[in-house]
UniProtKB/TrEMBL annotation:
Lineage: Bacteria, Bacillati, Bacillota, Clostridia, Lachnospirales
Span of domain Glutamyl/glutaminyl-tRNA synthetase class Ib anti-codon binding: 339-437
Encoding gene, per UniProt annotation: glnS
Annotated protein name in UniProt: Glutamine--tRNA ligase
Organism (species): Qiania dongpingensis
Subcellular location: Cytoplasm
Broadest EC class assigned to this enzyme: ligase
Amino acid sequence: MENETKNFIEQIIDKDLADGYYDHVQTRFPPEPNGYLHIGHAKSILLNYGLAKKYNGKFNLRFDDTNPTKEKSEFVESIKEDVAWLGADWEDRLLFASDYFDIMYECAVKLIKKGKAFVCDLTADQIREYRGTLTEPGKDSPYRNRTEEENLELFENMKNGLYADGEKVLRAKIDMASPNINMRDPVIYRVAHMSHHNTGDKWCIYPMYDFAHPIEDAVERITHSICTLEFEDHRPLYDWVVRECEFDHPPKQIEFAKLYLKNVVTGKRYIKKLVEDGIVDGWDDPRLVSISGLRRRGYTPESIRRFVEMAGVSKSNSVCEMPMLEYCIREDLKLKKARMMAVLHPLKLIIDNYPEDQVEYMEVQNNQENPELGVRTVPFCRELYIEREDFMEVPVKKYFRLFPGNEVRLMNGYFVTCTDVIKDEEGNVTEVHCTYDPETRSGSGFTGRKVKGTIHWVSARHAVKAEVRLYENIVDEEKGVYNEEDGSLNLNPNSLVVLKDCYLEPGLAEAEAPESFQFVRNGYFCVDSKDSEPGHLVFNRIVSLKSSFKI
Ligand code: ATP
Ligand code: MG
Ligand code: MG
């Protein structure tokens, strides 16, 4: 702990505590309930929660629900589920910004009384026009010098519903010549005759984000208000609001770089479009990097935590690659999961010299690298399924698996030698025949000869059938995420492959979500939480076994 390098936020916190600027640490995750969370949010959640834990502080989950148009209770529920699943415990601090509407209103009144806010009748277009540009200062609104009394009355009228949407706004009175455009008398309240999911029809005026957010933080006694880089030039306004509203323990805004994944659709808006266009099976489609999609795909909170730690916290934008996330889930599952046999593209293998009614129960280690996972038995008999690609009638160079005349090892079974091939009228291979050598039983210590190929199998009589879904990136990585001409997504037509007739060893018959396993040679798989049921098993491939990612 002592010698570890601290990220720049931890260095700021250390200094604030050492200087006595704060005597505690309090962080928050402030999602707007207008969609489901994604891997980028996971970074923010784990960062905020991790800091609170590290400094013995507190972590709030606060819904930033000040904009009634896009917000829905469905999103509130999904966000709670995702944050809890990631292990970020908000204890009894589940908070809603809309619960502070009264306080925000009081703050606005206070600003008016201090001569720091005014009601403005300019239209949205005029306000934009008056605002000026980066190179040109703005112009004062003709309503800027209204008296305190007039402003108080008009603001109350705004609250009481006397004006239509857009007719009047409340603006902070700061500086129309500020080099920072955010400081040019920003709008802090607008009229919007809309029902709110929490406060119903109580309000027809709603605070703007830049005014509401610092107040939310200050009310909750947040110390370090961590947000993403695009808010850097909003910080002067953030500081202005907490100062002018005269909060005792002003919070500090700290910006960090967003998590960005190369060639992956991450923004909430873009994911929402995939959902609305029906391109994916809801927000939890296993191809999405929404948190619910990752969970359904079989990612674990531990793997996401590790990924976020590897990505690090910094002030400059950088891009992570999907293989790094895949590496993290492989590492997490490697020693924890049993390695089962499952055949995804079945081909019948018949052992002609094996007694027809005989069944042997092979004892198999669940995980060769972790004896703690124990052993299981797997039935072996005369007719098996093997992977279609483990047989070639005419082998290519360096092919060591099954072909006529060749001997291979059946993993956890016997050596078999291919003797014959049966085909249908079209020439497709339908059965492969072989003989086995009883001396070569797995675990018998046989050392008489070696074979180069080892293949897996399941007993045809005992196998359970399952549907298996294989996934690739939803976007075409060769072309990049967006089509340069019309901005549409370059979709990968192979992002979902459904295999309906897979055969699994019988031990998997009772598997239920969220269980996951290694299927030897094929990758890691989990039971699908939405579509799998007893009698109709559905598995998702989480990730294959091989990786291009190197640490
Ligand atoms: P999106 O950018 O996907 O539309 P958002 O920023 O609008 O998301 P909010 O609900 O407003 O979503 O975000 C809640 C918190 O999550 C904010 O503090 C925001 O800065 C943070 N956040 C959002 N996206 C990322 C990301 N890619 N990396 C890190 N933090 C993020
Ligand atoms: Mg947002
Ligand atoms: Mg955003």
